[in-house]
Amino acid sequence: MNEANTDKTMSRAHTPRTFDRRYFLSSLGAFPLLPGLLSARPVASEKSPRALILLWMDGGMSHLDTLDCKPQAPPDIRGTLGSVRSSLDGVFVSEHWPRIAAMMDQCSLVRSITSPEGNHDRGSHFMLTGRRPSQVLTYPSVGSVLGEAVELESDNPIPPYIAIPDAHRYARQGFLPVASAPFELSADPSSPDFEVKDLNPAPAMDRALGLLETVDQLDGDPRSASEVARDHFLKQARYLSFEPELRALFDLKTEKPELRQRYGRHFFGQSCLLARRLVEGGVGTVMVRYKGWDHHRGIAREMTYGFPPKLPALDEAISALYEDLRQRELLDKVLVVLASEFGRTPRINPSGGRDHWSRASSTLLFGAGTKRGRVVGETDARGEEPIARPVSPQDLYATILQALGADLERKLVTADGRPIRIVEEGAAPVAEILA
Known about the structure:
This protein is an alpha/beta fold. The protein has helices spanning about 5-15, 20-25, 35, 75-80, 100-105, 120-130, 140-150, 205-215, 225-240, 245, 255-265, 265-280, 300-305, 310-325, 395-405, and strands spanning about 50-60, 85, 90-95, 110-115, 160-165, 185, 285-290, 335-340, 345, 355, 360-365, 375, 380, 385-390, 410-415, 420.
């Protein structure tokens, strides 16, 4: 801070009736945890009894090499990655997914997602918000919509929406207030020294919030609605920061070593385990963003080599997550969705990769609000496009919301007072998979 700004701040401090609280709150940005915690809201309520774990394969996961394999197709279509028959009749999945193959009859598979958006940003926006991109509005993502619906309660400061390690730019609050933004951990749960940055607050934070309360008392009553809401958020931020029981939700060291090993000692595995801990603790939506699925070159190697190989990592973590939720009797309370912004081209390109392909992709769902052992849609022999029951991103979005018990007729309000339905007009949930 320069000298002029320091003088201005001191001047304000000596005139408490005109104290600039906006300036004071902005100064709390020195504590990076606070802005994310301003969205803290309760989740365990009658209006939202179910939770969502969204496993987002960032970059465009190949449907032909995962959930919609074509073992009878020519080599330039099926590629060099093999497939195995799953427990769902007529469904072949990656040969690197033996555990997922065995649990497919406990899931619902939609393999006819089709979209006009083949650009990463536009495709992600469509899938994550249920709306095609607009020059007028950035729409809120599913996690923010679900969090916005939860009624504020002073006795529950748990954030309704958490992103591991961070949220895609279109997995945020859009036109909703910042209170609906995701709380981003900005850390890798598989790291030996994993901790949520600034979750353990500095003493200066407590002193700063105490000073704010003292200054606020000078104004007396009644307080404006915005001041009441702000006070509520600050109280929640302080509670989450200073309550050991709440901070313990993020402590993976309390889990048994054998369970951590079952999930896999890698980013995706430990993120899935943390997601289970969070929804069990009352978080409404957890997004696990697994980056690096944009395989324009050497797709077979990129998905099966490295530490860990991508396909085996998914097989290990997703099957462990399913079994963990089942054993804890949480499958009726938690919906798990495996999705990506689009699929990949049916034909292998000259570089051994697959390019963007929005005309066909697949999504896997299991848990709350969905039926078991259901397959919706089918693509042609090359995996190019649906030949039965095409499903749009807005249909899938409406399906997820309905499975979680959301009111599809509810309207959100933009900053200028414009009402917007939470699902696009004409969006139709996939009734075949809804319980």
